[in-house]
Amino acid sequence: MAYTGTExxxxxxxxxxxPRALAAGLAPSTLDALEGLGFDPxxxxxxxxxxxxxxxxxxxxxxxxSDDRIAAxxxxxxxxxxxxxxxEAAYGVDREVxxxxxxxxxxxxxxxxxxxxxxxxxSLAYDGRRxxxxxxxxxEALKIVQDRHIPAERMRGSWAGAMGxxxxxxxxxWTFAVDFDGDGRRDIWGDDPxxxxxxxxxxxxxxxxxxxMPWGVEVTLPEGFDYAQTSERVRKPxxxxxxxxxxxxxxxxxxxxxxxxxxxPAGHQGVAFLICANFQVIETYNKADAYVIAVGHLxxxxxxxxxxxxxxxxxxxxxxxxxxxxxxxxxxxxxxxAGGVDGLMGxxxxxxxxxxxxxxxxxxxxxxxxALLARLR
Length: 377
Ligand code: CA
Fold this sequence. Notes:
Blueprint: H1 7-23, H2 41-49, H3 57-64, H4 67-79, H5 81-91, H6 95-106, E1 115-116, H7 117-127, H8 131-146, E2 156-157, H9 170-176, H10 194-206, E3 216-220, H11 238-243, E4 247-248, E5 261-263, E6 272-275, H12 277-283, H13 289-302, H14 321-333, H15 347-359, H16 370-376
Helix pairs in contact: 1-7, 2-7, 3-13, 4-6, 5-10, 6-10, 6-13, 7-8, 8-9, 9-10, 12-13
C-alpha cells in the first residue's frame, strides 16, 4: 500500500495540530520544537508494512537468545553490577529480566535508534492510519521536552516513537520512567543507562512482577494429553497439571508458582511451556508471545540456565497475512467463528482453529500452519 502524504499536506496538518496541542496544555514556546519538522514517508511505509513480515518463533528466538546476545548480557550485568544491586533492592525485579529487555530492545544500549521522535510521531499522526494514537503520543513527547527531560533534538528513537535503551513510548515514559540518579531529569536516552534501566524495573514492578517467580518453565506433556487445555486462557493450580502428567523438561516435579497455563507456541510438535503470572507482566511490555518467551528465555540464560530442550517444527513457516485472512474466511464459511477477517491470530481465531481441529479428529492445539490451511481449502 503506497502512502498518499505530501510535504505540503504535512505542513497543513502541523498548522491544524497547533491549537489542539495548546488545548492539551502545552506552552506556545514548546511548540517551537515543531519548527523545521518535515514529512518522513519512510516511517509511514514501515508502519504500513510491518505486519507483512512474520517470522516463526524459532527464528526470532535464535536471534533473541543468540550466543552473542547472551555473552553481551553477561558482560553488561558484570559492568553494571552495583546499579543492578540497587535496582533489585529498590524495585524487587530480578536483574536478569531487566537486562533481557535491555538486550532485546536496544542490544544493551547499542542500538537506541536515531530517528527524530517528534518528526516520526508527527508523520504517523498526519498519515492517519493510527492517527489518534500517534497524535496522543506526540503530545506526550512534547510534554517531555517542555519539562526539560531531554532537548527536542536529542529525543531520538525507532521509527514508531519508541525511545532510548528500553524503547519506551512517550506515554510509557510518563507512567513508568524514573529519575534514579537524582539529577532532576528522567534520562532514558543518554549513554548512561541508569535511569532507563530503573524505568524498565519500575515498569515491571508496577505491572505486578513477583521476584523469584519464573516467567515459565519448559515442560513435557504425557501421551494422551488433552490438548484442548493448552491455552493461556486455561489456568490451573500446578498440582492439577502435575496430576495430568505435566513434568519439567529436565524431568523434575513442577515448581509451584500459583495458577499456571500450558502454552504451545508452535503446536503439539513444538516446545511446551508452563507459564506463570510473571508471563503476563512481561506481556504488558509487548504482548506477542514470541517476545515474552524471548525475554524470559534470555533472562534464564543470563541466570546460567541451558538452552530449550525440545525442538521446533523448523520445516514449517509462519502464515503470511494473506494466508491468515484466507484461514479466517475458510473457518467462518465452515461455521467456526474466527472473530472477523482481520489477518490477526487473536484468541477467537485460535479457538476457531481448535474447534475445527476437534471436529476433524485432529490434535486440537490451535496451531495454524500451511498444512492446516491446505486441509481447510
Ligand atoms: Ca536522571
